[in-house]
Amino acid sequence: MERDEMAENGGTEGWDQSQREEMSRFEKQAAFFLRADGEKGIVRQTYIGDGSRKESDAEHAWSLALGVLLFSEYANEKIDVLKTITMVLIHDIVEIEAGDTYAYDYAGQASAHEREKKAAEDLFGMLPEDQGQRFYALWEEFEAYESPEACFAHTLDNFQPLQLNGATGGRSWAEHGVRKENVLRRNEKTPEGSEKIWAYMRTIIDQYFPESQGGALSEEVQRRWGKDCKEEAAGATKKYE
After folding, report:
1. CATH code, residues 23-239
2. pLDDT at residue 230 above 80?
3. What distance in Å separates the CA atoms of residue 91 and residue 97, rounded to the nearest whole number?
4. Which of 169, 178, 199, 227 would you label with 83, given CA atoms 20 to 30 Å apart?
């Protein structure tokens, strides 16, 4: 029932307790739904496929949800697809309050979990208790990196930006002075979700970080982005070691 219609009919007067509780439940969900819209404004460091701009957290989450539908057959273990889709859709909502921490910002990563935990409590606390507890439990499961669903979700969480880095000529890696050892460190547990996807990721990594470069990006990538990224990369190299 719309609010103006409620007013015409005397508001909620005459409603029984279950009707009042149902409306309260909906209003909590609607408030969370609107708050989640803020995820569209969280800008990540990864460029979208055509390289025209950086993606948002919301776009990243959508990509992962689509990825679960597409690639679930390649999970190392059988997964609950709906559960995994829910997990990837909510995993970065916490960044509305905690902010995005770049994958290779190790100093920032050290404090990220505590900031994100507080944000998860606040944001999921907006929901009706049963739903809020379910979402919070899924977020914690993702963070724990133990269940088949969490492992596969993390694999996609790492695969999607790496694929975009490949599609955009290694631009974000070049801008931040990222080296091969940084990428491998980031992906130490990626094979636990899908050996098949990890094998594909390795072809991209080896293409952009050839052995001949001793861990640095290929000369072609450095030439392509060197002029635009030289100053930023100079300061980033030490930061991400």
Report:
1. 1.10.3210.10
2. no
3. 13
4. 199
